[in-house]
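Sorry, can you check?
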Amino acid sequence: MKELLNIYPFSLALRLFEDEEQALNLCLSNLPAALGLLAEKEADILQKRFRDKMTLKEISIFYGVSQSRIRQREVKALQKLRYYKNVNLLIAVPKTELIKEQEKYQRLERDFSVLEQDYKELVAKIELMTDKRTERNETATAEETPIEYLDLSMRSHNALSRAGIKTLRDITNLSMRDLLQIQNLGKTSVSNIEWVLKQYGMKLRKE
């Protein structure tokens, strides 16, 4: 692996980090972005020095300036790359760290799935409770319906009215025996009353 340190861009990384292990862990994909933070001539000088392996003299001739000027630009470029915000672009995340982060992400994903399922179940329970409450309210409202608004025969209505039965709830509080004891209420009228109760999903009280 160490032979890579003589090859660009690891040779540049070794000069930058001054540490072989860090240089070998260079994040290659971010190198263009890091060099893009430099002035164009600074990036070009680094590439000529470490990629093209040109000497200071060769580069100074190419640009028509002194070697000391090229050296200054090289040092300045390296200093810019060493600036913590820039150098972080070039530090690759170790594989072990990537695995840890992947496991952490998977745990969070599992936890999210559990929470999502719990949330769905909670919403379903709330909707069920709401439906039941609505149903109870509707039933309670229906029970208050006066017998005048029920589809009762005239004979059934009159017999119930004389017996003091005023609402649908009053009827459901009666058993079959109670109903048959009401004066002038025959089997036909009883059948009519049972049919009306059935329309509301209700029945006579069990004896």
About this structure: The mean pLDDT is 83.
